[in-house]
Design brief:
By secondary structure, the chain is α+β, with helices and mostly antiparallel strands. The chain contains two helices and four strands. It has one domain: Alpha-Beta Plaits. GO terms for molecular function: iron-sulfur cluster binding; metal ion binding. This is 4Fe-4S dicluster domain-containing protein.
Length: 68
């Protein structure tokens, strides 16, 4: 089973990972704001992560790690 983690210190809420995810399990958290003022990305259902790494590859700030 794969899972992702987002380093909110680096995430600027650009949303590229949201569009890249083939299983549509990543979204921007509209209820939280990081110290830098961004809505961070987060996974809404880790059990559906297929470990494809599309989100991590798309992230321009290297804020996403994929664990398998």
């Amino acid at each position: 089973m794969a899972r992702i983690s987002v380093d909110e210190g680096f995430c600027k809420g650009c949303g590229l990972c949201v569009n890249a995810c083939p299983t549509h399990i990543i979204e921007l958290d509209q209820e939280r704001i990081t110290a830098k003022g961004y809505h961070p990305a987060h996974c809404i259902d880790q059990s559906k992560c297929v470990g494809c790494c599309s989100c991590a590859v798309m992230c321009p700030d290297v804020a996403i790690s994929v664990w398998r």
